[in-house]
Amino acid sequence: MPQLSTKHLLGIKDLNQEDIELIFETADNFKEVINRPIKKVPSLRDITIANVFFENSTRTKLSFELAEKRLSADVINFSSSNSSVKKGETLLDTVNNILAMKVDMVVMRHSSPGAPHFLAKKIDANIVNAGDGTHEHPTQALLDTYSIREKFGDVAGKKVAIIGDILHSRVALSNIFALQKMGAEVMVCGPNTLLPKYVDSLGVEVELDVRKALEWCDIANVLRIQLERQQIKYFPSLREYSLYYGINKALLDTLDKQITIMHPGPINRGVELNSDVADSEHSIILNQVENGVAIRMAVLYLLAAN
Amino acid sequence: MQKRLILDSKLLDITISRLCQQLIENHDQFENTVILGLQPRGIFLAERIKSKLQSLLDTEILTGQLDTTFYRDDFRRRETPLKANATKIPFIIEGKNVVLIDDVLFTGRSVRAALDAMTAFGRPSKVELLVLVNRNYSRDLPVEPQYVGKHVNTMQSQKVLVELKEQGKKKDNIWLVDKQEK
After folding, report:
1. For residue A105, which residues of chain B lie inside 8 Å, CB to CB?
2. Which are the contacts of A190, defined by CB distance < 8 A and separation ≥ 6?
3. Hey, which of A300, B23, B52, B68 has its CA 20 to 30 A from A289?
4. In the predicted model, what is the mean pLDDT of chain A?
5. How far is residue A149's CA from residue A59's CA, in Å, rounded to a whole number?
């Protein structure tokens, strides 16, 4: 059987198309598992996984923990807010201490881009990047792409617009890599100040007008404005952002087609997305969450197999 | 280097017919009995048995597919991991008689995994095992089949190679081969 080409999941950039397809096919099987009366398989019963979160998270942390438990792994959780990191312990020391307790895999979220890559060079355990600063969030991109595949049958040839705060978004970068590897066309859309300077090197279409982006795409993946990462003001006010870039039903009704709406969460309702869109039948936001567990099970299972 | 034919298309048909008659002896009209084929090749056999039983009994036989990959005890101990397949059990097995169907019974580990996998769907009242080829004297676990297509004495160094039309082969052939040759 094919295996993943990597020992760690640090970013989509390191994966090839076969890896992504293998993860999707394995996730199909896990999706069936999590819809059974007994939603658990014993595959990882001899594995211990540490969830090490140096940054806040609801969805990703719960999703990983559930995926680990559905695979029968032993799980320990760590969050920096109530840990010795506050006392001045370094990242490497913290993780080495956790590994000394015989942990096989580390799922890590960190605010510094490249933190998991640094760890991967220093330690033996498998590392899964659960988001590193503004860099990558590979499992989110996998579950987003998987949700598109589930809804449309195929990703190749689909037009996906990623709309919002591209500059600060690890979801955007990972999604661009994943979608391109699977043959989709990608457009990014947002105010000029929230597009990264290197956007030209990504091979994506760039659009400043959200209406034109919506007219172009089959799927709109709407991102949150990451105020916590913005040290300076990139736009005058949230209200103004919402007026120019917020997506609501009235706007979508003026298009001559139906587009599918995605959002990685958490949603700021009324800012980037109105409730009449987020809760409509064209939104697959909750499917994304469900698929997240299956995708993470597949990733952990395949990494453990290597 | 030997490659010996154990069953060909014609013999396979006869064997499946006999197995179906034996199943009918024990399960009558299959009112409370379902069959589950084990992935990857047991499912083809289960389909053949299903259609044979349906033509003999003129009644619907509930048939499912069970994948044991996530329940195997050799995960992370094999050189290469196994690829998972689909599990489809579109009925309730609680309280039913279940006939598990696989192509070859060797160490019994797949069947152990299958028993585990199956209990995730409910508690059957009785479970039986049907295999096309039973490799004698090779069991790692105390697993014995109730219905056997053919008993074969084999050595550890040998392998039973199953080729069925459903896999895209021209003819049904079941071989006993030396592992090196495979």
Report:
1. none
2. A163, A164, A165, A166, A167, A208, A245
3. B68
4. 93
5. 21
What CATH number is attached to the domain comprising B21?
3.40.50.2020
How many domains, in total, are found in chain B? 1
The DSSP annotation for A183-240 comes to T-EEEEES-GGGS-GGGGGGT-EEES-HHHHHHH-SEEEE----GGG-SS-SSS-HHH
- Fold held by A12-136+289-305: Rossmann fold (3.40.50)
Tell whether the model's pLDDT for residue A90 goes beyond 90. Answer: no
Q: Report CA A251 to chain centroid distance, whole Å.
A: 27
Q: Is the dihedral of CA A63, A65, A66, A71 positive or negative?
A: positive
- Same fold: A12-136+289-305 with A138-284: yes
pLDDT confidence of residue B182: 46
B113 contacts in chain A (CB < 8 Å): none
- Is B172 within a domain? no
Residues written for chain A: 306
Superfamily of chain region A138-284: Aspartate/ornithine carbamoyltransferase (3.40.50.1370)
B157 and chain A: CB distance < 8 Å anywhere? no
Helices A17-33/A170-181 angle, 10° precision: 100
Range of the domain at B142: 9-155
Determine the Cα–Cα distance for residues A5 and A84; give it in Å rounded to an integer.
Answer: 35
Residue A2: its chain B contacts at CB < 8 A?
A: 83
Strand order in the sheet with A260-262: A205-207, A185-189, A159-163, A219-222, A260-262
Mind giving me the DSSP string for A22-37? HHHHHHHHHHHHTTSS
* Cβ distance of B121 and A38 shorter than 8 Å: yes
Q: What is the pTM of this model?
A: 0.89
Structure tokens at B67: 């994948």
**B133-147 burial, b for 16+ CB within 10 Å, e for fewer?**
bbbeebbeeebebeb
Cross-chain residue pair A32–B87, CB shorter than 8 Å: yes
- Within a domain: residue B68? yes
> Rounded mean pLDDT of A140-157?
96
Tokens of B121: 């769907």
**pLDDT band for position A38 (cuts 50, 70, 90):** confident
Among A25, A38, A71, the residue with its CB nearest the CB of B120 is A38
How is chain A split into domains, by residue range?
A: 12-136+289-305, 138-284
Q: Is residue B181 part of a domain?
A: no
Residues A188 and A208: beta-carbon distance below 8 Å = no
Question: With DSSP H G I counted as helix, E B as strand and the rest as coil, what are the percentages for chain A, rounded to 5?
Answer: 45, 15, 40
The answer to whether the Cβ–Cβ distance between A33 and B69 falls below 8 Å is no
Cβ contacts of B70 on chain A, cutoff 8 Å: 29, 33, 41-43, 71, 301
User: How far away is chain B from the Cα of A95, in angstroms, using its nearest Cα?
Assistant: 24
Which of these, A41, A10, A30, lies nearest to A290 by C-alpha position?
A: A30
Tell which residue, A304, A300, A292, A302, has the closest CA to residue A143: A292
